[in-house]
């Protein structure tokens, strides 16, 4: 059963405020939190929750939340949090304004925080990720401590490594009237430098965190193998577009390639499975290499880092080619 906001707020209050609370105190806390609720409304929701065994009433002493209530609250909180990820995607896709025809505007970016000596140590492998087309294009940026991307500030003594997020493709298509449906992100098996299929994935609708962040932190990627032997596991996203937009999607990918903002992209045929993943009726599937992928190199070598997918937006003019990374790094103190 889907509960209204006031019922969830009542369970929140009972979970955090103690074992027994009266209906009067519950209403007072609701009002204090800015939720206008009459005595009759509060009584209705309390009776409903008692009937559904989410709360237990102890005579005139008050109410306490049950185990069923705690499970319901946790489940509802997870669903609310999972909506945050989708909302963040939508906000950034709408906010970016990159125009590939003239290479101006902003793109969606990821942020990885790392110390200069660590970045220098794994420079070769990171550049190989870009060279092999296993990131979102060929461009990145470095920002010094004190600067921010979105809500994420670079701490003292760290460097912010900015990579282009694959959701930039969604933003380009949105401006051409093509809606995108991001279904999931996961680990894509690479054999002889070619993708063969997903080994694991997490649906965007079922998580409150970016799936590729989770896979990278868990050490489940194998970019080292992918860039050295052509066999490994990389992060990639699967999204769907209307079948009628096939030509527009193909044109957008070519435009991003010309702007050096596109890595490995596989576009399916209308209503046909792509890499053994079936698509919805009237849709085409697309597999796109994750933009946060270079950060996986650090995690694979035991380096603890902070990475945030879809950290914010960044101006295209501030990006540079990955071949310049070594020279750019020299301007940062060790």
Report on the structure:
This protein has 334 residues and is an alpha+beta fold. It folds into two domains: 5-88, Arc Repressor Mutant, subunit A; 100-329, Alpha-Beta Plaits (2-Layer Sandwich). Helix content is 37%, strand content 26%. It has helices spanning 5-17, 23-32, 39-51, 67-95, 116-121, 123-131, 168-174, 211-217, 223-228, 246-258, 296-300, 325-329; strands at 55-58, 62-65, 106-114, 139-143, 148-149, 152-153, 159-164, 181-191, 194-203, 232-242, 265-267, 283-289, 306-315, 320-321. The strands form four sheets. A five-stranded antiparallel sheet has the order 13-3-7-4-14. A hairpin with a 3-residue loop joins β1 and β2. α4 (67-95) packs across α7 (168-174). It is globular and about 70 Å long.
Compact summary:
This protein has about 325 residues and is α+β, with helices and mostly antiparallel strands. About 35% of the residues lie in helices and about 25% in strands.
């Amino acid at each position: 059963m889907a509960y209204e906001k006031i019922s969830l707020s009542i369970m929140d209050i009972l979970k955090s405020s103690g074992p027994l609370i009266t209906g009067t105190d519950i209403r007072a806390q609701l009002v204090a939190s800015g939720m206008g609720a009459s005595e009759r409304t509060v009584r209705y929701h309390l009776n409903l929750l008692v009937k559904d065994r989410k709360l237990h009433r102890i005579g005139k002493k008050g109410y306490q939340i049950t185990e069923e209530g705690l499970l319901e609250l946790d489940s509802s909180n997870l669903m609310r949090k999972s909506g945050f990820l989708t909302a963040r995607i939508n906000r950034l896709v709408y906010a970016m304004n990159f125009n590939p025809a003239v290479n101006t505007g902003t793109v969606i970016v990821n942020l990885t925080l790392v110390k200069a000596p660590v970045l220098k140590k794994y420079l070769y492998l990171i550049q190989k990720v870009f060279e092999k087309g296993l990131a979102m294009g060929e461009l990145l940026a470095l920002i010094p401590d004190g600067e921010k991307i979105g809500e994420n500030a670079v701490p003292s003594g760290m460097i912010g490594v900015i990579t282009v997020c694959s959701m930039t493709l969604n933003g380009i298509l949105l401006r051409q009237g093509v809606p995108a449906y991001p279904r999931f992100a996961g680990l894509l098996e690479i054999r002889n430098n070619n993708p063969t299929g997903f080994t694991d994935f997490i649906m965007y609708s079922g998580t409150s965190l970016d799936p590729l962040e989770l896979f990278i932190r868990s050490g489940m990627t194998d970019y080292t193998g992918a860039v050295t032997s052509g066999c490994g596991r990389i992060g990639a996203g699967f999204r769907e577009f209307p079948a009628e937009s096939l030509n527009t999607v193909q044109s957008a990918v070519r435009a991003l390639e010309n702007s050096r903002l596109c890595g490995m992209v596989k576009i399916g045929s209308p209503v046909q499975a792509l890499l053994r993943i079936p698509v919805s009726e009237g849709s085409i599937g697309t597999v796109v290499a994750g933009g946060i992928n270079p950060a996986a190199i650090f995690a694979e070598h035991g380096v603890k880092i902070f990475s945030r997918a879809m950290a914010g937006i960044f101006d295209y003019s501030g990006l540079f080619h990955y071949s310049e990374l070594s020279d750019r790094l020299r301007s940062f103190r060790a």
